[in-house]
Amino acid sequence: MPIAPRVGICHHHDRSSFFITLLNKVTPFFLEYPMIKNPASTNTISANKILITGGAGFLGSHLTEKLLSTDNDVLVVDNFYTGSKQNIAHLLGNSRLEVMRHDVTFPLYVEVNQIYNLACPASPVHYQYDPVQTTKTSVHGAINMLGLAKRTRARILQASTSEVYGDPEVHPQPESYWGRVNPIGIRSCYDEGKRCAETLFFDYHRQHQLDIKVVRIFNTYGPRMHPNDGRVVSNFIVQALQGKDITIYGDGQQTRSFCYVDDLIDAMVKMMNSETGFTGPVNTGNPDEFTMLQLAETILRLSNSKSKLVFAPLPSDDPKQRQPDITLAKAKLGWEPKVNLEDGLKETIAYFKALLANT
Ligand SMILES: NC(=O)c1ccc[n+]([C@@H]2O[C@H](COP(=O)([O-])OP(=O)(O)OC[C@H]3O[C@@H](n4cnc5c(N)ncnc54)[C@H](O)[C@@H]3O)[C@@H](O)[C@H]2O)c1
Nearest residue CA, atom 28 of ligand 1? Predict the structure, then answer.
């Protein structure tokens, strides 16, 4: 006996009508609400579907957190080379977040309308471990992400670096300075890879009218830095907390400027949402300068450490001075850093203290 359509109302008060009514009641929910989406609906993108390459890294995880907190859909793409799931574990319950294991040196086909391209190991120990892969990540990664931006017409931001200035003769460095970079040294895989990525960004902009944004990031620190990445802030803090000697390269008089991660993420988001046609490059960093000796002494004091300072030879190609000129960021983005070194270091020391207690 054919079953009456389940939307129909059965008027027969016999036994079969009873069963039909029952069947209608128990008809699985999914017949009415299919468990799959119409494929067409998966292609329609919301106004703010954002791809972050390298989203499980230090900066990427903070950016992911920030963009989720302002109700965006975020797709994190990462090969977990230096990043970790731990960095974004606290965000995994958020239904607006998707995470995909993928290496940006291979093409990627997704539907997005903003791309933050952060994928690239950032610390010398990591990028020098496999220098060929480092250059590939910067160059092939840029080509693949620019190709994706071209297909989807997404706005794309490149996380470039102050390393494009190399060992500068100009101090502080404005964006107009072309840099002094050794093309064949051990840092070149990173520096030249990033320079070439900038070239690709500007050529895609000129040739294909891509909506590009380039930020040149100066030394940034904060919670979720890799504890073994050999960068000066994490190095000093871990050594201080473990009561080990603090290694100072050279005489400790070389200066650096340090930007707290929250400030930097704020600048990146401001840059992404800046006026159309403003491409940068724009320096993002904290212009306050400190010598390595001052940094070590501040960390010793804030962590109540009894560690001693020891001196080791300066690594090859290590720049002696680096300080951003942020006039452009102030004018175009209305941005400048707010967190001072001591406050930022306190947060970072607290993070490493908890991390070391759990390992
Ligand atoms: N932290 C800084 O002070 C600083 C300064 C200048 C520039 N930057 C740039 O910002 C970006 C993020 O830096 P970070 O400090 O968060 O470093 P990080 O090493 O913590 O993050 C890089 C992320 O990219 C991922 N990754 C690396 N190669 C990849 C590949 N081939 N495919 C997919 N994912 C890949 C890593 O797993 C990691 O999650 C980098 O591009 C870096 O060059 C950072």
Answer: 120
